[in-house]
Amino acid sequence: MTRPRLRDLGIEIGTLPPGPLNAITDVPGVWVGHTTVVRDEPRVVRTGVTMIVPRENRVWEDYCFAGWFRFNGNGELTGLPWLEESGMLGSPVAITNTNQVGLVRDAMERFAAEHSVRNGFWLPVVGETWDGWLSDINSFPLTEDDALAALAAAGPGPVVEGNVGGGTGMICHDFKGGIGTASRFCQAGGGAWTVGALVQANYGDRADLRLDGVPLGRLIGCDRVPGAYHEEGSPGGSIIVVIATDAPLIPTQCNRLARRATVGLARAGGVGHDGSGDLFLAFATGNHLPGGQTRRRLEMLDHGEMDPLFTATAEAVEEAILNALCAAETMTGFRGHTAHALPLDAVAEAWAARPW
């Protein structure tokens, strides 16, 4: 059963229009694919892999300028030293569970080797959040073939959200969380650009959850929807945010865009807890950077023209988080733990009762 997204409930947030799919795949050439692994035997597993694939999977040899930002660093995103040094992204961006970052990274190396990537660098970018409440994370259930299946499944079009891919076993603001996406269309520097965001949302306390300023989490008590962690307390959580745009940005500007994901996270109620890995990556496809060239001609927006892209990023990240919560369904997993879905009737009630 597919649950409605935020806008399907008649709730529109922000000031900029979304793209036609309201997804990161509104950015031309950006694909998304998932592998979802759910089983109860021999171990209870609720996990998977999500791939965000620039340039229709030609990014291995036609890089994108990229940048990143660490809001809170209790997490992992591989490949960052060279990305920071060179300002370039040379692989898809994968997201999975904490224990299998290395396996997914190795699978991407295997893809590069098997497909004879010669003009690229093999330092894949893989992020993680912890799904050990709903999945037996120490069973290490994923295989390299699972990771490659997510890459093979990547394509354009609508993005499945909620309990899917790397987000399968994730919890957000004490409700079931997971994968969410959104996009915004803006004009800057004499051009029209798309900014898309995809999140793997696995962070936050219920009391902090906001819906366009409405204190949604405080309006939905545990008497109505039990908290995921009950009396045992939250073990901490994380969020990975991937931002894509077709604007011609250079690495410094990608760093600036990645930092603005913090605004969208804060609007939804994220505060960057000590146990949270809040890692944000932004890439821009507006310049082509094929391997083997010795000189390049580049285009860039003036820094003073970037404000609309900053707004687009904040709005897309905020809505992507809310879409993850709307799409996610109640899940029971490891040791009988249950994470309940955000009740959409309560969301509609809170929105209708807002004083503005």
Give a written overview of the molecule.
With 356 residues, the protein is an alpha+beta fold. It has one domain: 4-Layer Sandwich (L-amino peptidase D-ALA esterase/amidase). It has helices at 80-86, 101-114, 144-153, 216-219, 251-268, 307-327, 344-352; strands at 31-39, 45-53, 62-73, 88-89, 93-97, 125-129, 171-172, 175-176, 178-188, 191-202, 238-245, 277-290, 331-332, 338-339. It has a six-stranded mixed sheet, sandwiched between helices. Strand 7 (171-172) and strand 8 (175-176) form a beta hairpin. Helix 2 crosses helix 3 (144-153) and helix 5 packs across helix 6 (307-327). It is globular. The relative contact order is 0.22. The model has no long low-confidence stretch (mean pLDDT 95).
Helix-strand pattern, N to C?
EEEHEEHEHEEEEHEHEHEEH
CATH architecture tag: 4-Layer Sandwich
Ranges where pLDDT stays below 50 over 5 or more residues in a row are: none
Rg from Cα = 19 Å
What's the β-strand tally? 14
Which percent range describes the beta-strand content? 25-35%
Major sheet details: 6 strands, mixed
Number of domains: 1
- Strand line-up in the sheet with most strands: 4-3-12-11-10-9
Could you tell me how far the N terminus lies from the C terminus, measured between alpha carbons in angstroms?
Answer: 33 Å
What oligomeric arrangement do these chains adopt? single chain
- What is the name of the CATH topology? L-amino peptidase D-ALA esterase/amidase
CATH class: Alpha Beta
Overall 3D form: globular
Helix percentage:
10-25%
